[in-house]
């Protein structure tokens, strides 16, 4: 196997370099106690609480599907509501997963819950990520993530029973930022919602909470050098974190990354989920911004964020720039951090109540 080097980007705070084929999920005992690792055995690979374990008549069902998008095979799950009848017409909602996430995690949770509310939903793994095809693996370019959302609309528009005049878009974390971008141009989407929106371009460029402003040019040079190395047939350099110990997690000062590593590498881990991406992708990420051209969104817009989310500033920025939204609402989930909106029942319930109210009104 060709060795792929993994480097650590500046703002992640974890300094380690390993090979992708040697990545492991480490645990270590600390004086603060061991972080629990939750293992699930779901027939559909789902790793969220309350996940479907079998398709039963009269209940929400899950349908693993595959389709081609720009020559790449996309893996997705379609959820149909209870007593689904293909001869009837249903509103549909696309669900875009967070950065590093896959369809079996929080995107699947919300897709299932929205199906319980009567919608046909689709959650797809991004191109180059999860169970979807594409090389190099874990490629994370905004143009592809945005195209993935258009692709979900393409597929679900042809799904039996879908009313093509009633399609909504929902995105979580980085998927929220890409959903904003996709719906700026794609008017098949009649309503737009985000949860804990993460502006991938802004953070990759400026660092989380603007912590990397002094190293922008240095990191662009590293990305350019990485691309030059790829072009010359050399190793693909990866940025991100392949494995992390309990001690390292507990030393992280930001809720987003500390709780994020617990969610993705401990409590809701999935073998297809990773925080890795080619370092050369920073050339694309750092010059992109989710909130550029926000004035093009003229659909109804709902943006939700936790009151304690250290990412809240990104939702606030985007919301202010959505000056032409038909109507817009900023919904604060009291007490929630960014990651807690992915899984904690009380916050999921609050988000779902608002989402259902929003989509019922606008689809």
TrEMBL record:
Any matching Pfam family: DLH
Q: Which GO terms describe its molecular function?
A: hydrolase activity
Which UniProt keywords are given for this protein, alphabetically ordered?
A: Hydrolase, Plasmid, Signal
Where does the UniProt annotation place the signal sequence? 1-22
> Where does the source fall among the domains of life?
Bacteria
Lipid metabolism listed as a keyword: no
Question: Which ranges carry the Dienelactone hydrolase domain?
Answer: 75-193
For this entry, the protein name equals Alpha/beta hydrolase
């Amino acid at each position: 196997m060709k060795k792929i080097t993994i480097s650590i980007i500046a703002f992640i705070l974890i300094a380690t370099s390993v090979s992708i084929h040697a990545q492991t999920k480490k645990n270590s005992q600390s004086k603060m106690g061991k972080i629990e690792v939750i293992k699930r055995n779901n027939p559909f690979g789902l790793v969220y609480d309350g996940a479907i374990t079998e398709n039963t008549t009269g209940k929400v069902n899950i349908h693993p599907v595959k389709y081609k998008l720009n020559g790449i095979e996309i893996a997705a799950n379609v959820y149909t509501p209870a007593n689904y009848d293909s001869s009837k017409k249903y509103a549909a909602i696309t669900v875009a997963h967070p950065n590093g996430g896959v369809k079996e995690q929080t995107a699947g949770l919300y897709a299932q819950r929205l199906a319980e509310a009567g919608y046909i939903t689709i959650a797809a793994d991004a191109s180059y990520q999860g169970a979807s095809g594409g090389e190099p693996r874990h490629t994370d370019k905004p143009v592809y993530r945005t195209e993935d959302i258009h692709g979900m609309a393409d597929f679900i528009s042809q799904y039996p029973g879908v009313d093509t005049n009633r399609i909504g878009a929902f995105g979580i974390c980085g998927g929220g930022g890409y959903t904003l971008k996709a719906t700026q141009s794609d008017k098949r989407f009649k309503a737009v919602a985000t949860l804990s929106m993460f502006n991938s371009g802004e953070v990759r460029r400026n660092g989380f909470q603007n912590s990397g402003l002094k190293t922008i040019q240095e990191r662009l040079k590293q990305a350019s050098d990485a691309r030059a190395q790829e072009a010359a047939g050399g190793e693909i350099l990866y940025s991100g974190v392949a494995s992390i110990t309990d001690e390292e997690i507990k030393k992280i000062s930001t809720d987003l990354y500390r709780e994020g590593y617990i969610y993705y590498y401990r409590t809701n881990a999935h073998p297809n989920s990773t925080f890795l991406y080619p370092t050369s992708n920073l050339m694309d990420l750092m010059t992109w911004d989710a909130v550029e051209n926000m004035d093009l969104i003229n659909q109804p817009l709902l943006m939700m964020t936790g009151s304690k989310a250290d990412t809240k500033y990104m939702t606030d920025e985007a919301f202010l720039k959505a000056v032409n939204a038909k109507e817009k609402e900023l919904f604060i989930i009291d007490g929630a951090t960014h990651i807690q909106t992915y899984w904690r029942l009380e916050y999921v319930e609050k988000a779902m109540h608002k989402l259902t109210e929003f989509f019922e009104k606008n689809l």
